[in-house]
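Agenda item 2: adenosine monophosphate complex prediction
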Amino acid sequence: MKTRVFSGVQPSGQLHIGNYLGALKNWAEIQSLYQSIFCIVDLHAVTVYQDPAVLSAKIRETAALFIAAGIDPEQSSIIVQSSVPAHAELAWLLTCVTPVGWLNRMTQFKAKAEKQETVGDGLLQYPVLMTADILLYQAGVVPVGEDQSQHLELARDIAQRFNSIYGDLFIMPATHLPAVGARIMGLDDPAQKMSKSAPGSGHAIALLDDPKTIQKKIARATTDSLPAVNAESMGPGIANLFTIGQACEDSITRESVDGMRYGDFKKRIAEAVIARLEPIQRRYLEVTSDPAYVPAILTQGRDRVLPIAEDTVCKAKRAMGLYV
Ligand code: AMP
Ligand code: TRP
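Presented output:
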C-alpha cells in the first residue's frame, strides 16, 4: 500500500502566500507519490469564535483554493473534517491518554490563549484533535509549515503513548517541511509569522489579491535603511521577500538579486508572486463558476475516506475495551 499523506488548513480568514508556500504548493508537488488526504479543518477553526455564515462560506472557498492551487481531486481526497465524525471520536480517545502538561507546553496554545478573554477547552485540545486527524488515516507523512513542527512532535508522543498502553496500533507520522518557504514572515513585520488572523492590510498577501494590491503590499513591505540588496547579509525584511520570490520562481537566486536597489528588487519579487498566483486565481474562477462542483468533490472525498476512518476508530475502541 502507498504511504498515506494527511494535512489540513483552517477555513478561517483569508488563505495567504505563507499557506501556499508552506503547505499547498508542497501538497500539490508530492500528491502523486502518495495516497493523499487534504482536509479543511473546520473543527479546529471553531476553537476560537467564527461567525457561522462566514465559516460555512469559507469552507467552500478553502476547498476551491485547494483545487486551484493544484490539488487534483481525482488523485487526492479533499474532505471537510466535520463531515467525518470519527475525527472527533478518535480525538476523545486520545485525550484520555494525553497528559495535560504536554498540552500546556504548546507554544501556539500559549500564544492564542493570551489573546482570548476566556480560553475555551477546545484551544487546549487543539493538538489532540490534530493528532486524531493524522492517526485516523495512519498517515506516514504530514506536509506542513514549520509552525506545526511542535504539534507533530506531540502527535508522535501521543501515538507512542497509546501504543505502549494499548498495543501497537498507530504508525508514527513524519513531518515534511518544504525546502524553501516553511516560515514566511509578515510583510509589515518580518519578526512575526505571516498569519491569517493578524490585522492590517499590509501584513499578508492573500491568494486572491489582484496584481495591483500585491505590488502595493510588496512596495510597502518593511525593509531596512540600506539602499541595495547585499546577498551575503540580508536584513530580515529583505530576506523574507527573497524567500517569497525564490519559492515562487526558480530563477530568483542570490546572485540574480545581489546589488539590486530595493525598489527594483521589490518590483522583481512582486512580478514573481503575481506570475505564480495568476494561474491559481484563474483556476479558482473556473472551479467556483459551477456552484455544485466543490460540494460534489467534498462528498466524493468523504465517501472515499469514511471506511478508513471508521476502521481505525473501531480498532482503537476495541484496543481500549470499549463497546464496538
Ligand atoms: P493555518 O493557516 O494555521 O490553517 O495553516 C495551514 C498550513 O499553512 C499549515 O501547514 C501551516 O504550517 C502553514 N502556514 C501557515 N502560516 C505559514 C507561514 N507564515 N509560513 C509558512 N507556512 C505557513
Ligand atoms: N493545525 C494546523 C494548522 O493550523 C492544521 C491542521 C489540523 C493539520 N489538522 C492537521 C495539519 C493535521 C496537518 C495535519 O496549521
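Discussion summary: The chain has a mean pLDDT of 97.
Owner for follow-up: CH.
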